[in-house]
Amino acid sequence: MANIYGYIRVSSRDQNEDRQRLAFQELSIPAKNIFMDKQSGKDFDRPSYKRMVRRMKKDDLLYIKSIDRLGRNYAEILEQWRILTKENGIDIVVLDMPLLDTRRGKDLMGTFLSDIVLQVLSFVAENERTNIRQRQAEGIAAAKARGVRFGRPPSPLPENFHEAYQLWKAGKVTGTAAAELCGMPLSTFRYRAEIYQKAKLL
User: What is the pTM of this model?
Assistant: First the structure.
């Protein structure tokens, strides 16, 4: 007897999978047959996905909410679709795209239409992923241009930093000695001293 499966994917641990899970509950998919990965869709190296594929047999049915939940890599989505449907004999239904339902149109025309829709949607999914990366890069570049700093905030300066800095600037102690007075490496002292000097000049 054929089994019904559902596959859920969210890109990160803080994303909510409730919308996908609710859709599968309405289809009465057994909880033990719902598999979920919380990681990027850039490839199919996902533990739950692999476990699900190993369990599925010919004529089983797999539901996914949308094509980008399956993945975001155009070539790999097409390859996985081919393996699941052509090699393993599994049917796939994409809930957000009724045309992508391999149970329908088993004739040549139905398969042809399904393949076209899949290729278009796979391309759109990967294109969106590329656009997201580009927007992120542009956003970071714009923020840096505005002077926004990324990474951990610097630790507070030690109380005697001003005194050590003044001694060093006056040539009364070496940089190494000033760094030791502040309890920090020489490279850190010089870096913090440069920022300190710029702040004083503003």
Answer: 0.58
